[in-house]
Specification:
The structure holds 2 protein chains of 2 kinds.
Chain A: H1 4-17, H2 31-35, H3 59-62, E1 72-73, H4 84-95
Chain B: H1 4-18, H2 22-28, H3 39-50, H4 58-69, E1 76-77, E2 83-84, H5 88-103, H6 109-127, H7 137-155, H8 158-166, H9 176-192, E3 202-203, E4 206-207, H10 214-227, H11 235-244, H12 253-269, H13 273-286, H14 294-310, E5 314-315, H15 317-320, H16 328-341, H17 344-350, H18 360-365, H19 369-392, E6 405-407, H20 408-422, E7 446-447, E8 461-462, H21 467-479, E9 485-488, E10 493-496, H22 499-502, H23 505-509, H24 513-525
Antiparallel strand pairs in B: 1-2, 3-4, 6-10, 7-8, 9-10
Helix pairs in contact in B: 1-2, 2-7, 3-5, 4-5, 5-6, 6-7, 6-9, 7-9, 7-10, 9-10, 10-12, 12-13, 12-14, 13-14, 16-17, 16-19, 17-20, 19-20, 20-21
Classes of the chains: A mainly alpha, B mainly alpha.
Organism (chain B): Didymosphaeria variabile
GO molecular function, one term (chain B): RNA binding
Protein name (chain B): PCI domain-containing protein
């Protein structure tokens, strides 16, 4: 179940073929069509000689541009009281005498 | 025709055993037609002629021939002269393989399943040999993967297998997929409990002996159980791993990532979102970014994203711009915006159980819809209280001794207004999750249970927020630590505490969600340990797993 041989071949291929490498994905199809996808988690390619222990992916293989940090926003509270939502809410509160 | 080919195959297998070449054995014992090498068709022809399926004695005769030809299955000695017990189960397994390829008909799924189950069980028994068992491990892992595919395919066509399920001995409703998982699990347990390894099961930085197969076998079981929607039954596997596995990080990356994906999903489905995000984050970080692995990265990211969402962490621009996150922005940004603004109307519309939101069915298929609906609603309420506090809260002057406060009646007004808007029939939700119209307000949401629909005297139920409910909700939010303050039941007001320390009333009253939730979940779990994720070497080199106490997956 090795993946190294296949994996490196695939990497080379991806570098050559991949149009979406620089920035935007090349796909601009309809959402619905794209969303029809299988939810099965496919096995990682594992053919080859060193069958049992050869998926030695390097850190380089798994790095996304800019690194794996700051993937998640932890501070997103919104203090804007002038957006449409806030304005409508304020109106409603005003009607019932609830604004300050 | 002579018995030449059976003998030739036996001879080949015998040499492979002598050379301890497990991969050679796997390459000989191929299972799945069509066979690339025509010699297999000649072998099948020979088997049909010499050992026909309708002759009851065929299998016994085959075993005799194998036993005589594959001499390595007899008793012997190892390199140091210690006796090695005979490997009769390998003889049985080889005969099982020969009869399998003789009889298999891929158009007959159920028959193939039963034959596969039989040959897999025989392989499991051969695997148990303390010294030589490991030689069939790669073969058996390959078989398990084929068996998994077959079991899942059958599980999706239950009409084919109804009578078999009905006839299963005493185990009510156990599906073929569960049965298959149980068969594969025996092989998994054999790998896990291999005692013929160095203490701890890790030698030169690699899993030793059959322990190398632990996660591959576990992943096949998990795949079957997940694909057939038996997620509850995975817990035994994680418990077994916890009890006896070497640390996960010694295993090949593909094994690790696949295992962490299933483990993460298991914790997700068990509402352990904090554990789920830790596990899935590791899986995501460890999966190569090239496009061959896009599908795996996408599925990992999906559950990672939702687990984080429920814990109050939103995807950043960096996540949304990843190719594997295609269309995640369209789906999840309206949800995060609704949470951010406290927009109950938009949230309720999206999470409406009639699945009328354009992405609702998709979220359902991914099995995250109800989790988002149930677990994120409280986050929306927290933001709504916060929003109303910003608009209508009372912030005392510098000389005032009273704390900042919010009249809860204002929240009643806001919540009722938003909920009423959400129930507007036919109203379309904008992509930003918020739509205003100047038409008059629709009626409040009504509900009649479908069982009572059309019956006389049954009045629909109209939900309307009142001060009791808003006060109760506020109390829950305080209890959960999502709002920091206290309620004056007499004045119907929320008073905010700790303004000076936090710097502002709104910061004091509404602490950072992720901080609160992650701290709390970590405390509840007693740290960052995760059931099913072995990170450090276990004392004494892993415990012995007692097969007798192992519960089948379906029970």
């Amino acid at each position: 179940m090795s993946g190294a041989a296949q994996g490196s071949a695939a990497t080379t291929k991806a570098v050559v073929d991949d149009k979406s490498k620089n920035g935007e994905p090349a796909v601009e199809k309809k959402p619905a069509a794209q969303l029809e996808e299988d939810d099965e988690f496919e096995d990682f390619p594992a053919e080859g000689t060193q069958a049992l222990a050869n998926q030695n992916w390097t850190e380089e293989d798994t790095q996304i541009p800019g690194g794996n940090t700051h993937l998640w926003e932890e501070s997103w509270d919104d203090d804007d009281t002038s957006d449409e939502f806030a304005v409508q809410l304020r109106e409603e509160l005003k009607k019932l005498g609830q604004t300050k | 025709m002579s018995r030449q080919l059976v003998a030739t195959f036996c001879h080949e297998v015998n040499s492979a055993i002598r050379n301890e070449d497990a991969l050679k054995i796997r390459s000989i014992l191929v299972l799945e037609p069509p066979f690339a090498n025509p010699i297999y068709y000649e072998l099948i022809e020979e088997l049909r002629n010499e050992y026909p399926a309708d002759d009851d004695g065929s299998e016994d005769r085959l075993e005799e021939v194998i036993k005589a030809a594959v001499t390595e299955t007899g008793e012997g000695q190892d390199e140091e002269g210690r006796p090695v017990q005979s490997w009769h189960h390998m003889v049985v397994f080889l005969a099982g393989w020969l009869t399998f390829i003789r009889d298999v008909d891929t158009s007959q799924l159920l028959k193939a399943y039963q034959a596969m189950s039989d040959v897999q069980s025989k392989g499991n028994t051969a695997l148990q040999h303390p010294i030589k068992g490991i030689l069939v491990l790669p073969t058996l892992i390959g078989y398990a993967q084929i068996f998994a595919r077959l079991a899942v395919a059958l599980d999706r066509q239950p009409e084919l297998a109804q009578h078999v399920i009905a006839a299963s001995e005493g185990k009510e409703g156990e599906s073929l997929a569960e049965k298959a998982a149980n068969v594969v699990r025996q092989g998994f347990l054999t790998c896990l409990s291999d005692r013929n390894t160095v203490p701890g099961g890790i030698k030169d930085g690699r899993p030793d002996g059959k322990k190398i197969g632990v996660y591959k076998m576990a992943n096949v079981c998990l795949k079957i159980l997940f694909q057939s929607n038996k997620l509850d039954n995975c817990s035994m596997i994680f418990k077994n791993i916890d009890a006896a596995s070497p640390p996960l990080h010694f295993y090949p990356a593909g094994d690790r990532v696949t295992y962490l994906y299933y483990l993460g999903r298991y914790h997700f489905i068990s509402n352990n979102f904090y554990q789920a995000q830790m596990v899935l984050q590791q899986a995501y970080t460890d999966t190569p970014t090239h496009e061959n692995f896009m599908k795996q990265r996408r599925l990992i990211l999906l559950y990672l994203l939702v687990a984080n969402l429920i814990l109050g962490r939103f995807p950043s621009e960096r996540v949304y711009s990843r190719p594997e996150a295609m269309f995640f922005r369209e789906i999840f940004q309206p949800i995060t915006q609704a949470i951010q603004k406290g927009n109950l109307e938009a949230f309720q519309r999206m999470m409406n159980l009639d699945l009328s939101w354009e992405y609702a069915a998709k979220l359902c298929r991914w099995k995250v819809f109800y989790q988002i609906g149930n677990c994120c609603e409280i986050l929306v309420y927290r933001s709504l209280y916060r929003r109303v506090f910003l608009l209508a809260g009372k912030q005392p002057g510098p000389m005032d001794r009273a704390p900042p406060s919010l009249d809860l009646n204002a929240v009643v007004v806001a919540a009722a207004y938003l909920e009423t808007r959400a129930s507007a029939s036919q109203a379309k939700t904008h992509s930003n999750g918020w739509s205003f119209s100047n038409q008059g307000l629709p009626t409040p949401p009504s509900y009649v249970d479908p069982d009572f629909e059309g019956m006389q005297g049954v009045a629909p139920y109209f939900h309307q927020f009142d001060i009791q409910e808003i006060e109760g909700l506020c109390a829950s939010l305080i209890l959960e630590g999502l709002i920091s303050g206290y309620i004056s039941p007499k004045l119907k007001k929320l008073a905010i505490l700790g303004t000076k320390k936090a710097g502002s009333p709104v910061k004091a009253g509404f602490p950072n969600l992720w901080q609160v939730l992650s701290t709390k979940k970590r405390e509840q779990a007693g740290g960052d340990g995760v059931e099913g994720w072995v990170k450090t070497q276990q004392a004494g080199g892993g415990k012995v797993v007692r097969l007798a106490s192992a519960r089948p997956a379906g029970s």
